[in-house]
Amino acid sequence: MLSLGSGGGRSTKPSFVSYVTPEDMKIKEKEEGLKRSKHPDLLPGEVVFCSANHVLKYTLEDASQRGVYGTLLCTNFKIAFISDETSSQETAPPFKNKLLRQNDIPLTCVDHIYGVNDEKKKLIIGCQVKSKYPSKLIIQCKDLRVFHFSLIYAKEEEAKKIFQGIVHHSLEPKSLKCVFAFSYCETASPSKASRKRSRTLMFETKEDWSVELDRTKGKCKVSSANEDYVISETLPQFFVVPFAVSDDDILRFHGKGIPFWCWSHHSGCALFKMACLPAIQEDGISQKYMHRMLDAVTQDQLYPVKVEDLSSCLPALQDLQLSYNKFKQLFLIDSTTEFWVSDMKWFSSLENSGWLEIIRQCLMKAVEIVDCLESAHTSVLIVEESCSDLCCVLSSLVQIMLDPYYRTRSGFQSLVQKEWVAGGHSFLDRCNHLYQKEKEVPAPVFLLFLECVWQLFQQHAPAFQFSETYLTVLSDSIHIPLFSTFLFNSQHHRDTAMKPGHPEAQRSPLNFPSVWDWSLQFDSKAQSLFTNPLYVEKPIQDKTLRKTAHQKHQRQLSLPNTLSKPSPRKGFFKEETDNLKKIFLGKRVGKWLNPTDSSKELYESWQRKPLDYQGLLLPYLDGPAIRVWIQRYLRWVPEAQIFGGGSIATVNRVLELAGEIQNLQKEVERRSCRMDSSIAWTPVYSGPPLCSRLSSFPFTAMHASSFRPAIPSSIRQSLGSVSSLADKEDDDSQVSGVL
Amino acid sequence: MEKSASSDSLGSKPSSSRQPSVDSLSSSSTSRSDRSNHTKPDPSSDSVSTSTNFSPELRVLRDANKLAQLEEPRLLPKESIQDMAKDVTYVCPFIGDIRGTLTVTNYRLFFKCMDKDPAFVLDIPLGVISRIEKIGGASSRGEVSYGLVCKDIRNLRFAHKQEGDARRSIFENLMKFAFPVSNNLQIFAFEYGQIFPGNGWKVYDPIAEYKRQGLLNESWRVTKINDHYELCDTYPAVLVVPVNIPDEELKKVAAFRAKGRIPVLSWIHPESQATVTRCSQPMVGVNGKRCKEDEKYLQAVMDANAQSHKLFIFDARPSVNAVANKTKGGGFESEDAYQNAELVFLDIHNIHVMRESLRKLKEVVYPNIEESRWLSNLESTHWLEHIKLILAGALRIADKVESGKTSVVVHCSDGWDRTAQLTSLAMLMLDSYYRTIQGFQVLIEKEWLSFGHRFQLRIGHGDKNHTDADRSPVFLQFIDCVWQMTRQFPAAFEFNEYFLITILDHLYSCLFGTFLCNSEQQRVKEELPKKTVSLWSYINSQLQEFTNPLYVNYSNHVLFPVVSMRHLELWVGYYIRWNPRMRPQEPVHQRYKELLAKRAELQKKVEELQREVTSRSASSSSERAGSPARSITPIQTFV
């Protein structure tokens, strides 16, 4: 556990003195002997701030006041609870995170803390903590776990300290340097071994962009105009723009108003994104500038272009946050009673949160853009104020729908790097890791993207190489303050933060791990759950197919459809240029096309063909098709666990079968190369029986013996409005007939 | 869903040719694979329809139009074309007006439009029609139209040029053959004479089933008292009762229970001997009448299970309704009279509430869904709430029997609607046998058909009285609950979604005798097993269609579904299947089947290689005399 596995050369010697700062020595001294036995396995650079013994952690499975005694600690990384009953707690959960144990909460994962005194539940706000401490602590986490701790059995001094410590370190603003990743990376020897370049493109170098351009046959250029961030600190050092965009253009408005290339369709049209120009007057300069930029996007009038202004058609970030807060609340359940009470109005509560509707709108918008690229061969330029929020959601969704590469694991990771990390999504501000309330709008933008991907996944599982569990784990990893992926607002931000504090210091820059270093969190066995066994791989022998596709593609290129095929959007560009300009001049133009009408044809032609999992993927958008991500949201709710069932049962069946197939394949190979062998072959079957697993597998473990069906506590229902019918005698005609 | 949700696939299926062309309900069917099926014209249609007698008028039509033959359905044995009209417009709510030829037979309504590619087909058994209405007068186009309200959650609208006779005759023929009972005609099931390899009427043998459960033992016996349906005309002939209650006392108990439906055993736990017993309400009345024999009877039920000194009586009704029943002579067991018994009300509403709920549901899902208010609209129908309560009731029963090792008695008012839902669902949770295809057929035969769920009244087969208050979607709710369970336990059921949809389609189709009549007595009287075909004969003739590839038989594993709204969902594949925008369910199954095929292929390869090795080693080792060739390694071949 102490070893971080991937760490390669790092020492695994558990020397804890070296992790302890002088301030902590006092605590240490006091309980040295006791602690040694049940001290949390600290990570390099992790330091215990305070701890309290005899804390009771309620077990939520029953509403009673039963629980487990143990020690509650607060370190610079996490809040941890270590049970006194080592045996039962230590039964390994099926899916062990190497950084975090079952009862560990990273400080950045804390969402809300409630104090309970005399049955009164009160939200704790940082900076307002007095010397008093509540008898009970409820910690709600961003990964939707809820912990209940009782402090009444702990020593007063300890209880006070731990309460203040937890509140201080998780609820109060802090500086970036306090984030655990810094002390971790200063202590841990950089793990070069794990950086053996998975196939994920990081888009930090010119080469990565060139590879991507080549792969999609994009007709654009990689620009190094911002090398060393000379033009803009929000832009990456390298990016791709149309040929016609010069370095001067980029300099002009510090990168605003520049169409950044995202992806090219095989027909030659492409997807671009752009940040709005700063408020500009109706002067000729910016107008002319805009005109030139649009011209550049058309690639010498070869492709018409459509502009999508996201601010006019998608919810604002504040609404996003508001809606998610309401939605999330539905899953943070304190008690069984609350579970069944909220069950009554479940559907309307879901609807009222508006979260599913936002997901639907994003998917719908993405389909519109896909329609433009796929059916009309029109380039699309997505415009957003900063082009780093919903812009990222939309551009990545479009690419996932159109390009099967992004449905593989490495492709998906590359996409996140390209659109989100290099694209300058302000992860730090949006995730609010530093708890700086007023500074920036926090909003679950990246989570929204994962939600949309999950919707596509649940509708078309065989199209994805990665699994639902992968997406869930990725959504959890956002809140682990260790990964460079989610800790910064831009590449420049990251590069400066990782520079050694004093320029004269003889240190190399810090090297934060990327979240894609999965081996930091999970061993290879656990990582196998990231693979979707249903995935239909790209047929290997498709050379001939490719050729035909290629030819078609070239034909389309040589005869641009504006000339050959009188598409309904023909001439769009010229007629609409004036309108397009308006957008950039601050005026908002309503939707260009009615969404339902515009993509209807696309859907129809797509549905007519047999579904090709390696081809275009469209989401179904009707109400019943958009679902709740059960695994992510309900995995910790004991009442909602299906014993021996759930979608994981299907996955497990498929995994079993896939395993058998693999074994058979090996067997065939073995036999065909060693024909003389006559060793009897026995099929391998492993793994626990399906029927004893919970639907929340692999996230929670429960023993078959302790499972009890959840019976609705209040069966009374809300059918008040049914009126006379309910009072009517059942089967009345018969009764009256008899009597 | 790997197969179209089509009830109408029958025409082609039994002949095993599996020509897909006619077998789908419409091009708005949910199945992707089906869409392409319409492209091929049906090659065998002309050979089938020669037996039909045409009216001179029709003959002209047929001769005049060479396409006509392609526009007709493939007919089933004894099915005959009754009427045909050209240039009929089907007003499709999804793709707009479609012009084609409408055919009415004594079994189905068939609409085909050849102009479209693929051809558009609408193929509906007349049995699903609950109501036919003329809509308004002549429209601006000089057309009149009529609408069909169907029992399977859709409405159809057709428009004709107003040329008098043709329209009237189509309308009249529809009225005549859709409602044969109201017209003193025979239901088509009595004519349909298809022969299947197995006889579905023999699927359920009560004695064999009770023996499978481990009966009859020292506590339970079979009584012959109802051999001629004299004790209770809505009960089956074979009843299992406690050993120590003699037949004479059974009669007294019957007098105290509504409709004479005494408590009888439905299921017994193989280990704990805890039982599920079903009955109707006791006739307590306002004065709190008691019956010594009934009290003794329930005591005997409790005593038969040594594990527990308690008996749970589950009254499916809301307590208010149970109390209200007293004024009509009914009521519920008082805990004073029944020592050691605990009464629990399950709050499931009556058939009228359920009917109303389904009506609302249809409004919400057909033809179009209001996107932005979908969830609250769904909630306002209360449909899933009812499903939840039924499942919750069954769960409590199963939990008491399994975890509490306690025997339970289940009743509602008459014990043929909610009681059937509860006992059959509880048995499905408790006993993995009922989760097999055959076991599920037995379950329906036993708990629903033999114990007198009044299918004829609840469905209204062939009856034009669509406002009949006796109609109610009780059985549909049961199947919905089963579907919810299959969603929660995707590998625990041998059958797939298509199996459940097929059962529901033939609940209405009147093609098979299975769901006709109200009781076993009536079925015997009508000689249904002799005169009609059982649905199970058809289903068992092509099991692969209905098999869930993911199925693992974990025997002795009790299923406890989660009855929270969070896990219940609307059964899109059934209720919204007519909407072409709904996605097909379970692409996973298709993928899984591919994997199964791959495994089989590899297994074969391994076997072949093994054989090769064996033969080679045999020949090469011939000098090593006496060394026997290794036998082929057994290969795991379960599916």
Strand order of the largest sheet of chain A: 4-3-2-1-8-7-5-6
- Our count of helices of chain B gives 22
Cα-atom radius of gyration of chain A: 28 Å
* Helix fraction bin of chain A: 25-40%
**Tally the helices of chain A: what do you get?**
26
Percentage of residues in strands of chain B: 5-15%
Radius of gyration of chain B: 27 Å
Largest interface, chains and sizes: A-B, 96 and 99 residues
Distance between the termini of chain A: 76 Å
Distance between the terminal alpha carbons of chain B, to the nearest Å?
Answer: 19 Å
DSSP summary, beta strand count of chain A: 14
As residue ranges, the low-confidence spans of chain B are: 1-54, 623-639
* Shape label of chain A: globular
Explain this structure to me?
The complex is a heterodimer of chains A (739) and B (639). In chain A, 39% of the residues lie in helices and 11% in strands. With 739 residues, chain A is α+β, with helices and mostly antiparallel strands. Chain A has an eight-stranded antiparallel β-sheet with strand order 4-3-2-1-8-7-5-6. A four-stranded mixed β-sheet of chain A has the order 11-12-14-13, sandwiched between helices. Residues 1-37, 542-595, 681-686, 717-722 and 732-739 of chain A have low confidence and may be disordered. Chain B has 639 residues and is an alpha+beta fold. Chain B is 36% helix and 14% strand. Chain B has 22 helices and 14 strands. In chain B, a hairpin with a 3-residue loop joins strand 1 (81-92) and strand 2 (96-105). In chain B, helix 12 (383-402) packs across helix 16 and helix 13 runs antiparallel to helix 14. Mean pLDDT of chain B is 84; it is low at 1-54 and 623-639. The chains are: A alpha+beta (739), B alpha+beta (639). The interface between A and B is large, with 96 and 99 residues.
Task: Report a brief summary of the structure.
Chain A is α+β, with helices and mostly antiparallel strands and 739 residues long. Helices cover 39% and strands 11% of the residues of chain A. Chain A is globular and about 75 Å long.
